[in-house]
Amino acid sequence: MSQPGSAGNVIAAIASFFFAGLGQLVQGRIIAAIIFCLATYISYGIATFTFGIFLIVALPLHLWCIIDAARFKAD
């Protein structure tokens, strides 16, 4: 998982697609995983109560989580 586009990053991106933050957790980035998970699912929860208006925030946040997992480059 050292370069963007590597097999490990692709697996992490797929994991983040199904569960926000799981890709970061697979990569060993625990704090990033917790932040992405909480922020994304809190946004989805608020969207449920605001008749979907908050999806304007939730969907891009989930997409950002997926892209972050796919583009991660270990030092």
Describe the structure in your own words.
This protein is an all-alpha fold and 75 residues long. The protein has one domain. It is built from 4 helices and no strands. Helix 3 runs antiparallel to helix 4. The N and C termini lie close together (10 Å). The relative contact order is 0.22. The model has no long low-confidence stretch (mean pLDDT 88).
Can you tell me the residue ranges where pLDDT is under 50 for at least 5 consecutive residues? none
Main structural class:
mainly alpha
Distance between the termini: 10 Å
Based on CA inertia axes, which overall geometry fits? elongated
Number of alpha- plus pi-helical segments: 4
Tell me about the largest β-sheet: none
What is the string of SSEs from the N terminus onward?
HHHH
> Which range does the strand content fall in?
under 5%
The amount of helix comes to over 70%
Rounded mean pLDDT is: 88
Instruction: Write down the Rg.
Output: 13 Å
How many structural domains in the coordinates? 1
What's the β-strand tally? Answer: 0
Question: How would the blueprint of this fold be written?
Answer:
Elements: H1 7-18, H2 22-26, H3 30-49, H4 55-71
